[in-house]
């Protein structure tokens, strides 16, 4: 009987292991990212509801991709200038992030977790290491993640003509909201 139990465990272990690994991976297909720029002459706000992301709780890896041209503005001219003059979305169609979630608590356990995410952000063809804080809420079969952070447009080689310095701020507040579902 003992041998049979050991044989059963040896044969089933790869299957059980793959189940555990699969249950640690989550995806978000319609995340939300927005940015806000406050300058003396004009505030600029845009949002994008097509962010894709993956998070693996077994390794704490996280990645996301944003289609730059999917940012929507209130004014169509702003959107045109954003894509053609500043972000050059025809040349750099995606913004990406790849990194790791750091937390003082075990994020595989259900509940609310304050986290720090560190990794490589790629915007406008420029890769930069960033570290941001956020909140991750693990509900067992779903996860929500929220963060707000500041980026400097100059860090990503986004040029603002001197004539427009009063229209476009040098720092932009980014808000990120992701709702993950268990990857099946």
UniProtKB/TrEMBL annotation:
Transmembrane segments: none annotated. Residues 56-179 form the Lipid/polyisoprenoid-binding YceI-like domain. Gene3D superfamilies: Lipid/polyisoprenoid-binding, YceI-like (2.40.128.110). It comes from the Bacteria. InterPro entries: Lipid/polyisoprenoid-bd_YceI, TTHA0802/YceI-like_sf. Pfam families: YceI. This is YceI family protein. It comes from Carboxylicivirga marina. The lineage of its organism: Bacteria, Pseudomonadati, Bacteroidota, Bacteroidia, Marinilabiliales.
């Amino acid at each position: 009987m003992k041998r049979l139990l050991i044989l059963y465990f040896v044969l089933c272990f790869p299957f059980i292991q793959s189940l555990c690994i699969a249950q640690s991976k989550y995806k978000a297909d319609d995340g939300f990212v927005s940015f806000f720029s406050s300058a003396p002459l004009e505030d600029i706000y845009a949002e994008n509801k097509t962010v894709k992301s993956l998070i693996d709780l077994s390794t704490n890896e996280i990645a996301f991709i944003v289609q730059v041209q999917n940012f929507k503005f209130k004014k169509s001219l702003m959107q045109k200038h954003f894509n053609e003059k500043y972000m050059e979305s025809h040349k750099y169609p995606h913004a990406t992030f790849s990194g790791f979630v750091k937390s003082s608590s075990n994020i595989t356990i259900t509940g609310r977790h304050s986290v720090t995410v560190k990794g490589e952000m790629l915007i406008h063809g420029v890769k930069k290491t960033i570290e941001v804080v956020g909140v991750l809420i693990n509900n067992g079969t779903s996860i929500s993640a929220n963060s707000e952070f500041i980026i400097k447009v100059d860090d990503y080689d986004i040029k603002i003509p001197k004539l427009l310095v009063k229209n476009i701020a040098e720092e932009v507040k980014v808000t990120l909201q992701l709702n993950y579902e268990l990857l099946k």
